[in-house]
Amino acid sequence: DVVQLIYNGGIAVSAFAITASGSGVTGSSIVAVRPQLLFVANDGRSPFTVTEYSPPYTGAPTTTISNGVSVPVSLALDAANDLFVANTNLSGSGDVTEYAPPYAGAPEATISNGVNGPAGLAFNAGGDLFVANYNTNTVTVYASPYTGAPITTISGSLNAPDCLAFDGAGDLFVGSYNTNTVTEYAPPYTAPPTTT
Length: 196
Prior knowledge:
The chain is mainly β. The protein has strands at residues 2-8, 11-18, 29-34, 37-42, 49-53, 63-65, 72-77, 83-87, 95-99, 109-111, 118-123, 129-133, 138-142, 152-155, 161-166, 172-176, 181-185. Strands 3-4-5-6 form a 4-stranded antiparallel sheet, with no helix packed on it. The chain has a 4-stranded antiparallel sheet with strand order 7-8-9-10, with no helix packed on it. Strands 11-12-13-14 form a 4-stranded antiparallel sheet, with no helix packed on it.
């Protein structure tokens, strides 16, 4: 089963589970959710895919994305419901691919500048994309259309960052895998962390 809590402003507003076996899910899966949209990153074995499910989220996937997907480990949706996929790849530094609805075909964009082992994705309220780079102990921040150089790089106090979240005040929380810590950064994210 894949279980996901949906958060709105830091408050859990709903929770659900889908039965994943036999329905296109392989390996560990990460879920991105918006009303009527559920995506699962299938990174367990090749072929690597991202699958979309429709309510009630059981049964076969409605869409399978494979073009540009290589070991997907994190997903995020922007305000326009474009899907962003963090691909760690089997070799190299990885990238982030963007897919516009209806999510079929080639990626709309590929983000690779400053990306190295992307393990987590999140958008802040302003629409900036944050990428946790596991291999370089950084979080890179991109403004729309996201394909240029990072507008900010957050470093220090991070050790294999692999997950990102924002609270209602816009503070960024970064989970570091190797140290089992969560580090908090306040906007504009250029100062040292406020809490670890």
